[in-house]
Amino acid sequence: MTAQPKPRLLVLGTGFASFSLLKKLNFDYYDVTVVSPQNYLLFTPLLAGTTVGTLEFRNIVEPLRRSFPQARYYQALCKDLNLAKKTASCQDSLDGSQFEVPFDKLVVALGARVNTFGIEGVTENALFLKTIEDAQRIRRRILECFERASRPDTTPDKRRQLLNFVVMGGGPTGAEFAAELHDFIQREMRDYYSGLVPEVKVTVIDVAEFILGAFEKPLRDYATRHFIQNGITVKTGSSAVKIEKETIFFKDGTQMPYGLLVWATGIAPTPAMQAFPLPKDRGSRVLVDNHLKVKDQADIYALGDCSAIEGTPLPATAQVAMQQGDYLGNELNALAENRDAQAFQYHHLGIMCYVGDDIAIADLPALKWHGHSAHLFWRLAYLMRLMTLKNKFLVFFGWIKTAFFGRDISRI
Predict the structure, then answer these.
(1) Which of 30, 77, 212, 259 has the maximum number of C-beta atoms within 10 A of its C-beta?
(2) What is the DSSP string of 333-374?
(3) What's residue 283's pLDDT?
């Protein structure tokens, strides 16, 4: 008797949703192929720390092939789907060649990109904080600004422009980058650029009337006061209309020169997601039911930042993506074992944010607090959420190394 071939499961993406799914999936049931431009999982909640050397880049990545040798992997971008033929059209990320991947079941977990809101000059002049490459560019730019500002022929106006570090977006990503940058300047750069540090300005700008809007008011007010006490300028209710190479233009007619502009204003769908012939909401996220099945599709699922459960809005966070990945991995196992499917239920675990000086704020369902103890909890929580023992080890000793020896200031 010939054994039945295993269903071909195609997973698009290597983010939290995909990685969590693969950890739960029983590979005895499926022939798995993963397609993504990145061959690793990036633990984005700790990405801000890599921009200033609190952690090194490789501390927070986990190669997919090492974690899941049972899966077939292609480093490519899925450009389109043929739902009738059940094939995905892919473009190799290395040489640009085209190929197709067949599937019986499809999981779409392509995440999202940074939202520029169509503002002129953002893509050309601002730096994002979404990928390892983004963090590397930011790290080089910070050190470049200090080196150029230290030259004897740099005018006072040019020096002030170079040393104004601007963060556009007051959510957790922008706030944590500003906090890490403050620590870096006060703990490392003060020793080597003592004449420049008094002129450094860190500015956090948000279109809303307050920063960290997802947190309860007492916590976001505390974070704002803490920033101001540390010399970080918080500029709210401000909307940029144009970005030039060294200048931000605001809706009220004012301008701000800058040396570094980090754009952290939210997310938008990727171009590939917009091209897929799948039902979407107004934000171009794929519509799914409470089993994460794409609307009107039998064998296609979507999860993470690129999806939206119809009638149940959820935040675009790592914990949502991880819970959805865990759920779908278990449900695909149940499907193969002919067990009853259960609807997805999201359990909010709370949110946290590092605000500098070894202080964090924590907004948990049962507890709201801030301070050094909250920072210890912040670190412990992220250590627990890291996907592999290797990453836990590297991050833990990376923090110890930074505490004893400081951050590296080499511009590589």
Answers:
(1) 212
(2) HHHHTTPPP---------EEEEEETTEEEEE-SS-EEEEHHH
(3) 86
